[in-house]
Sequence to fold (563 residues):
Amino acid sequence: MDIKTTVFYFLSAILVIASLRVITARNPVHAALFLVLAFFTASGVWLLLEAEFLAIVLVLVYVGAVMVLFLFVVMMLDINLERLREGFWNNLWLGGPIALLMVAEMAAVLAARYFGAEAMPAPQAPGAGYSNTKELGRLIYTDYVYPFELASVILLVAIIAAITLTLRHRKDTRRLNSSEQIAVRRNDRVRMVSMPAEKE
Amino acid sequence: MEALVLQFFQWFWNLFGLWDALWAIVKPVWPLVWVLAKIVGILVPLMLCVAYLTFWERKIIGWMQVRIGPNRVGPWGLLQPIADGMKLFFKEVIVPTDASKALFIIAPIMAIAPALAAWSVVPFAEGWVLANVDAGLLYILAITSMGVYGVIIAGWASNSKYAFLGAMRSAAQMVSYEIAMGFALVCVLMVSSSLNFTDIVNQQGRGWFASHGAGFLSWNWLPLLPMFVVYFISGVAETNRAPFDVVEGESEIVAGHMVEYSGMAFAMFFLAEYANMILIATLSSLMFMGGWLSPVGFLPDGFLWLAAKISFFLLLFLWFRATFPRYRYDQIMRLGWKVFVPLCILWVVVIGVWMLTPWNVFK
Fold:
């Protein structure tokens, strides 16, 4: 086994174990942290595949931002695990078949016919000076510019929708206007009065 | 460099006639040994800088406040950081009874590992770099974005209200300012059309001013002035330094996420904070102040210029701390989201349009 294969199996083992722990960990914070580990290891696997841009962006976006907010929320939740467990058998009749269906779908798509070694030959090794990032940028902004712009518009709409849904105007908040506060001059607040000294 | 070192070893061990025997053993693992040597060569000076940065912080803030600062241990107090280090090293690391043990221990490691790993792509002069990777800028952004986990995990694992409040504050603050920071870096990326730090520095050495002997006017700080300011202020916020230190907030939440830590575990958070400060100062010098390039034509480029620029930015960090009162939390969020993010988006458009006009200076 050459070193690349060894590293691949090492990372894959961590990835599989971490993913399993995500769904088996009793503590939701531990589960979220295992998900972070899974993302990080997956980016290592992508680096092995010479997809350095995607690997780094995976860490940047998912590990650095999304999972931080996830943890932020999960840490503040007061989850009662017993009550969550209660529903397990009641919902199994629905959840079980759906899980089986998903496994079947994945198997159909990922079967050797489409994603096997024959169907997906290894790409030719790029020459020296090949930059993954540059190539990706060139493709996104030329050949795939419309799908890319569409995706970004959809995301923008989703952001605005999410903010609008959570926006609540409370009447009792005391809003501060920073520019007004900064614009205040001494003479607006303080009045110098000249008066004779008083004796007691 | 590598050849020189090898030659030296060959000469040294040949004095004893042992070179051939040694080389037969070392040769298969030499690349690994060499990389490890380079890592040590970066980390040892870095740790020394961190130690003396804490000393200079106390000295300089002392002078700014007309005090003397540490002056008892060693000549002019110069051994103070060593004494502090020894003290922290020998103190007991106390783990609270109700803490989540494993995570409590992992948290300081999660804080310091990204702070050190980021240095692997930072060049110190032409060719002086551990890993000259193409996507260096992205790598730095990704690695430093993981530093927040140390703080969050520490806050949660401590099982303490103050620590948890600190963790919550840091999660929100660091994620907010990362966006402004990322956009500032997008501008740098646009003008230098490269993610490689060496290319980014060398690009700043070209231009009308540089060819007329006034290189410092060709550096990125001038055309990207708003982004330079945004980047540095975001850097101060990312490192949780004053005036953005609500995460620690001694007067409100004791020491935030670090409140339950003692001894070496506490020292690791401290090391991470100062290593990150030096990193932000270095990145600011590399991306906006021309790195190791000389400001004027008649002086040679070199590492000393970079060191001088880093020292200047570090002085700013200390100066801010001595000068500004702490921001209120809502003011921090307002500055990040309502001032910096719109400004950054605007400047990305400005730079984009500028580069399409005939007055494009970034070639």
